[in-house]
Amino acid sequence: MKASKINIFVFIISFLIISCDSKKKVSIPEFPVNERAKMITLGGDDLILPRIESLVLTDTAIVALGHLDNKWIHLYDRKNGNPLGSYIDRGEGPADIVSAERITRRDGKWVIYDAMVGKIKAYAENFKFLSDETPSNNLPYPVISRKFFPSGKDLILTLVGEDETCRRWAFLLADSLGHGQPYVATPVDDNPDLAENYSRSWIESSPDGRMLVATTWRGCYMEIFDVSGYEPKLRRSQCFAPLKLRNEGRFPQLADSCVRGFSALEATDSRIIACLNGKPDEFGSTDITVWDWDGTPLKRYATGVTISNMKLSPDNPDEIFAQVYDKEGNFYLVKFICRGLLD
């Protein structure tokens, strides 16, 4: 199936950039179970896809958030990938979206945070506009993005610091009023240059809201947190492939030789599912990996393609729906079958 091409460089810089300690060595973990995932391509030869930022599965449809033909929401049939319609214009009107990273289904509504205008927008099941609101923000720092977890907690990404020259990435779990304490600590706090540039590319919550997992795209870090109320407490931090800095110029820059580590991330109450690049010389994350909440590697499924986004099937524990791309930059919508994925 032919899909739209993208410039690989643009894809890379769309992820949050982080920095690393060159003294550490690459140590990709061994997995007790190694298998090959079965991949089924969805959609016809003429299917053109956006770069999908977020996926949600209903009983019959794949709901994809991504900008294409001036629309943000695109529906595809779960059985065959055929297009079912596109919704929500890109624009500045009350019902429009300027910029979005995630769509969430909450309380029978679709909820999207438009970071460019700082508003939470709600839509009916058929994507008819319902309302928008400017959320309360009790932070003295900017809200870079906001995600809505099934537990009812909001994840806010922000930059903290006394001035713009020394701000650091931080995240917090917040209630609807924006109350929460930014988590600033990093695994590289012993190196100020690294700590100032360190950020987490993917953060997901267990459905019950009691645990968080964070991973990085360049380099390969995984952090696991216990959550008490709205306060995350670090349980375990692992570095499988560190980042390296160039020694050129006025400011530290990320070395081109840094390993591309984790991409898409999902979580259940008992498992973490993360797309991992197990070969340091490869460009992107091609393997679906399974971990427990202590950070123990359990299973690994090779796919042969790079996975940019994924969603666990809500009714089949062996299935994952995903957007992938090949070495030529062609996007595909696929279904993976991974035997015993969540066993």
Explained architecture:
- With 343 residues, the protein is mainly β.
- Helix content is 3%, strand content 44%.
- It is built from 2 helices and 26 strands.
- Strands 1-23-22-21-20 form a 5-stranded mixed beta sheet, with no helix packed on it. Strands 2-26-25-24 form a 4-stranded antiparallel beta sheet, with no helix packed on it. The chain has a 4-stranded antiparallel beta sheet with strand order 3-4-5-6, with no helix packed on it.
- Strand 3 (54-57) and strand 4 form a beta hairpin.
- The longest helix has 6 residues, at 8-13.
- It is globular, with a radius of gyration of 19 Å.
SSE inventory with pairings:
Layout: H1 8-13, E1 33-36, E2 38-42, E3 54-57, E4 61-68, E5 71-77, E6 83-89, E7 103-106, E8 109-114, E9 119-123, E10 129-133, E11 143-148, E12 154-160, E13 168-174, H2 192-197, E14 202-205, E15 211-215, E16 220-228, E17 231-241, E18 245-246, E19 253-254, E20 262-267, E21 272-276, E22 287-291, E23 297-302, E24 306-312, E25 319-325, E26 331-337
Parallel strand pairs: 1-23
Antiparallel strand pairs: 2-26, 3-4, 4-5, 5-6, 7-8, 8-9, 9-10, 11-12, 12-13, 14-15, 15-16, 16-17, 18-19, 20-21, 21-22, 22-23, 24-25, 25-26
Shape: globular
Please give the order of strands in the largest beta sheet: 1-23-22-21-20
Total number of β-strand segments? Answer: 26
Average residue pLDDT:
85
Structural class: mainly beta
